[in-house]
Predict the 3D structure of the following.
Amino acid sequence: MDQNQKVIDIRYSTILLVVLIALTVSFGLVDKNEDETTDENDFAVVELFTSQGCSSCPAADRLLSEFIAKKDDKVFGLSFHVSYWNYLGWKDPYSKEEFTERQWQYARTFNNSNIYTPQMVVNGTKEFVGSNRAAAEKAMEQAFASSNKHNISLNIVQENNKLDISYTLDGSLSEQLVNFAVVEKDREDLVSRGENRNRTLHHDNVVRLFKTLPADKAGIVTMSLPGDLNLDKSAVIAYVQHKRTMAITGATRSRLANK
C-alpha cells in the first residue's frame, strides 16, 4: 500500500467515526424527546384555599407561586380566596362564598368537621396545611405518577369582556364534572386592616371566575370577565373531577391575551 492510500484510509476512518458519534448523539436526543413528550400527560391540580385576612396564609401563597413558576408545565395552580375571614375588618377582594362552599365540599369528602386556611388539595384526593412544603411535594410527585384518564381540548373565543369556551372530552364520563376557572397571575394588594395590616400581599393564579358543569363529550360555556382582569396574565384552567370522590383525572390550560 502506498503512502497516499494510507492517508486516504486514515481520513475515511476518521470521517466514519465522526458520523457514528453523530448518529449516536442524535438517537440519544430522540429518545430523550420521546420521554419528555410522554411526561406531558403528568399533571397536578393544586388548589389553595387562602385569605388575605389570614396571617398564616402568605407563606402558602408564596409556596404556590413557587410551584407554578418551577413546574408550570405540570402544575395547575388555583388560588381560591374564601370568605370566612372577612369579618375581621378586611374584606378580601377575591373572596367568594362559592369558594368557601367548595372547601366545605372537600371537608365532607375528607370527613373533616371543619375548614381552615391555608389548605392545599392536590388532585382532589390529598389535603394538608398549605404551607407544608414536604407534604405538597410528596402529593405532587404521587399525582405525576398517576395516569391521566381524561383528555380535554379547549377552543376559546374572546370578544370584549366575554369568553366562549368550547370543549371536548374523552374517556368515561359517568358521574364526572368539568370545572372551568379563569385565573390571574401577579395580583398585589396593600392590606390596611386585619391580621395582615400594612402588608402588601402577592398572589398567583387567583381564581377570578369559576364554573362547574356535568361532564359531556362536548360542550360550551360562556363567562363574563371582570373589568380589572389583566388578560395578558390570565388563563383558563379546565379540569375533570368525580362528583362524589372529588378525584381529578384530567386537566388542561389555555392562556389568554389582549387582542
